[in-house]
Amino acid sequence: MSMQAKAIIKYLRISPRKMRLVVDTVRRKPVAEALYRLKISNKKAALLVEKAIRSAAANAKVLKMDEERLYVSQIKADGGPVFKRFMSRSMGRADRILKRTSHLTVILEEGKQRMKPYTPLQEREEAEKPKRKLIGRKKKAAGSKAESQ
After folding, report:
1. pTM of the prediction?
2. Rounded to an integer, what distance in angstroms lies between the CA atom of residue 105 and that of residue 78?
3. Looking at the 3D structure of the chain, how many domains does it have?
């Protein structure tokens, strides 16, 4: 089993459901790419996840792991304790408000090869690559149908 660097942050004042939206974007990504994705995200959870990944990377440095080969192998947002509050409503009633908390766990591992430094242009270039065209195949299939009728 390869070495692991871990960081756990407990009792974050954000619901696990909101946290998981951000967590899913960085799972199994190199650390540099994960930090870039979090930096451009405009969600509150992105800042919290970024801090956790930086903490795990610092722990990896202490363990003398190669920082350029690190990737986010596991990351999860579990539910923590729930604060129960009440809001008064009309006619003497009250509604319960649940203020949820999260526990965030980040585990980094070393990959097999070094990750090249991540630049956002790589992603854009991959998106701009021309897709293979299947038009010729569709035309042939449509032509063969017409011939058979």
Report:
1. 0.76
2. 8
3. 1
